[in-house]
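Archive maintenance. Older records in this collection stored only the sequence; we are now back-filling the structure field for every entry so that each record is complete. The fields below show one back-filled record exactly as it appears after the update. Entries are processed alphabetically, and DUF397 domain-containing protein is next in the queue.

ARCHIVE ENTRY
Title: DUF397 domain-containing protein
Organism field: Streptomyces haneummycinicus
Length field: 63
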Amino acid sequence: MADINWEEPFCAEGNNCFRVGTDLEGNAYIAVAGQEDTPLTDSREALRSLILEIKAGKADHLL
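Back-filled structure field:
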């Protein structure tokens, strides 16, 4: 597995904690806190787009 630089966990209301990380090759990772050994992997741009869409409320129907 790549050498991932993980950010501090982000925890929403309740116990939903996620971590975002990046590596030196331009990949981005998102994982449930404590399960960093099985992250979703994509480009930094894809992760950026995902976060912007979530902030814009386009995933509210999933909650």
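Update note: DSSP finds one helix and five strands in the chain. The radius of gyration is 12 Å.
Entry marked complete.
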